[in-house]
Write a structure and sequence with these properties.
alpha+beta; 4-stranded antiparallel sheet; rod-shaped
């Protein structure tokens, strides 16, 4: 067979076409493999990012929980301390005031009892009183009992001096 320039051109064109298809198929296969590998790497990276994000979110939650728990506990402790201290102080003051009121009422009652007893003693002794003036004992008589006593107490009450023997 005799070949001419057209045949040679045609064969070269066919061969180039065949090689081009082969290169395209190889390129397409390689690009497909590269795409599959890229998808695998992207999925792996996405899973890693999601896992890392979950871990970071968990750590942030723990930090946030601890961050508000500490001030809450400190605040509650202070509030309980202030409230408890104030309540205890008010309770103590109320009890102290109540005790003083009771004590004062008892003292007033005792004073009144003493006044009644003193008044009764004056009635029972007819106004006679025993005193010690400058180391000497005297009996103070009610007003108007002696016409001319030797001593006077408080200027208007007659008195008798008792002997020390």
């Amino acid at each position: 067979m005799i070949s001419n320039a057209n045949d040679l051109t045609e064969r070269l064109r066919m061969r180039l076409e065949s090689e081009r298809r082969e290169i395209e198929e190889l390129t397409a296969n390689e690009l497909e493999r590269l795409a599959e590998h890229s998808r695998f790497v992207a999925r792996s990276a996405l899973r890693t990012i999601e896992r890392d994000t979950e871990e970071a979110t968990g750590k942030m939650r723990e930090l946030l929980v601890k961050a508000w728990q500490r001030p809450l506990i400190v605040g509650l402790s202070l509030w309980i301390g202030f409230f408890g201290g104030s309540w205890a102080t008010m309770r103590w003051l109320a009890m102290s005031i109540q005790d003083r009121i009771v004590t004062r009422a008892e003292l007033n009652r005792d004073i009144e009892d003493a006044r009644r007893t003193l008044a009764q003693l004056e009635v029972d002794t007819w106004g006679v009183a025993l005193l010690e003036i400058e180391g000497e004992r005297v009996v103070v008589l009610p007003k108007g009992t002696l016409a001319d006593p030797p001593w006077w107490v408080d200027g208007d009450r007659p008195a008798l001096k008792l002997s020390n023997e």
